[in-house]
Amino acid sequence: MTTAGTTAGTTALITNIGSLVTNDPSAGDGPLGLLKNAAVVIEGERIAWVGPAAGAPAADTAYDADGRAVIPGFVDSHSHLVFAGDRTEEFNARMSGRPYSAGGIRTTVAATRAATDADLEANLTRYLREALRQGTTTFETKSGYGLTVEDEARALRIASAHTDEVTYLGAHIVPPDYADDPAAYVALVTGDMLEACAPHARWIDVFCEKGAFDGDQARTILTAGKARGLHPRIHANQLSYGPGVQLAVELDAASADHCTHLTDEDVDALANSQTVATLLPGAEFSTRAEWPNARRLLDAGATVALSTDCNPGSSFTSSVPFCIALAVRDMGMTPDEAVWSATAGGAAALRRGDVGRVAPGAYADLALLDAPSHVHLAYRPGVPLVSGVWRRGVREA
Ligand code: NIG
Ligand code: FE
Question: Model confidence over 33-70: pLDDT tens digits?
Fold first, then answer.
């Protein structure tokens, strides 16, 4: 059999899939819609057919999965990949006992401002390739390391050449040049910077935290973004309890991200809303912080997404499989829940129905695992199990 992959109008069959996660409960067992001995037909960049291998229609090319597992490509709904510079020393010091604070972001801001467009783009594409090899086929990324009108707009322009899921995070921290006048910085973020950035972004985000932006500032910024056609998502309740989650729900944010420190009222608010709780265990791992309690959110009925938060400060991993393993080991998730959250959950956090599932009409974004089951993503932590990736119908890795 030849390597399956499509060009416009052609079809490709992936057959002899030992275990297929569809995330389509009508197609198979449980919330994962699990199908054994399955096949998938791709037409162009979309899924055309899903079902038992024995009943698969013919296609132009075919690939034999040899009994291995296939899952939807990961949807990494939270990353910060437009940056320059290095914070190895900060990590090293932290692992020697110094606590994490929002202030380290300034180091990356200085390096990012000094970088050329070509440097920023090369760095971004390097981490995108790295993520793709590990099964990520959809990713969101943010500005937030420029913090001037020009530097934020160029970060978003560079990101938008690589993904539709681009987030304006001018409100990451108050930059040193505005340290004496945070109100003037909020005015910039909601004024000239918003005007320059909105054409390149779909989302607006705020780091709502002590040392960054308080609840009133965050409301002002997100409301201005909404009025300019951007949809909110929020860095909420990461380092401490605070107003972020309640604000996310109030503003119908697509996602409240981090959710490490939640009151019962915060959990209830998320469970009774469309706002997804996006958990980012790479950040707790890399800052030796308390884990978010996924079990509490799931038991309350909240929708949970799992993402990497890939950034040079608090979570320098592009590996969704690593985050799945952490979530299962330390956050109370079952392997099934963690895989759902890293695929369909990420899609929900981006309000997308065309990714994160394997069903006719969805994008043909698939990860082939060198394992008989998706459970191995948690069972075999740190092992590079992703052995094939199709993105928009094209075999990429
Ligand atoms: O998601 N919380 C704010 N932003 C990032 C950290 C960025 C950095 O330290 O550079 C985060 O953890
Ligand atoms: Fe983040």
Answer: 999 999 999 999 999 999 999 999 999 999 999 999 99
DSSP 13-75: EEEEEEEE--S-TTTSBTTTTBEEEEEEEEETTEEEEEEEGGGPPP-SEEEE-TT-EEEEPEE
Q: pTM for this one?
A: 0.97
Residue nearest to atom 5 of ligand 1 (CA): 314
Q: How many C-alpha atoms does 293 have within 13 Å on its Cβ side?
A: 11
Residues of the chain with CATH 3.20.20.140: 75-349
Q: Which two tokens stand for residue 328?
A: 């299962």
Atom of ligand 1 nearest to the CA of 212: 3
pLDDT at 384: 98
311 marked as part of a ligand binding site: yes
CATH architecture assigned to 75-349:
Alpha-Beta Barrel (3.20)
Which ligand does the CA of 90 lie closest to? 1
* Beta-sheet strand order (sheet of 203-208): 74-76, 136-142, 165-171, 203-208, 231-236, 255-258, 276-279, 304-306
Backbone angles phi, psi at 129, to 5 degrees: -65, -40
Which residue has its alpha carbon closest to ligand 1 atom 8? Answer: 313
Structure confidence by residue, pLDDT tens digits, 329-367: 999 999 999 999 999 999 999 999 999 999 999 999 999
Residue 9 predicted with pLDDT over 90: no
State how far the Cα of 221 lies from the Cα of 218, in Å rounded to an integer: 5
Distance (Å, rounded) from C-alpha 290 to C-alpha 366?
33
Q: Where in the chain is CATH 2.30.40.10?
A: 11-72+357-395
Half-sphere exposure of 141 (CA within 13 A, CB side): 28
Which CATH number is 11-72+357-395 given? 2.30.40.10
The larger pLDDT score, comparing residue 1 to residue 272, is at: 272
DSSP state of 341: I
Cα gap 144→212, rounded to integer Å: 12
Selection from 77, 206, 225, 208 nearest residue 144 by Cα = 206
- Rounded to the nearest angstrom, the distance between the alpha carbon of 240 and the centre of ligand 1 is 14
Rounded mean pLDDT of 278-297?
A: 97
Distance CA 70, CA 64 (A): 12
| Ligand 1 atom 12, closest CA | 314
Q: How many CB atoms lie within 10 A of CB 329?
A: 14
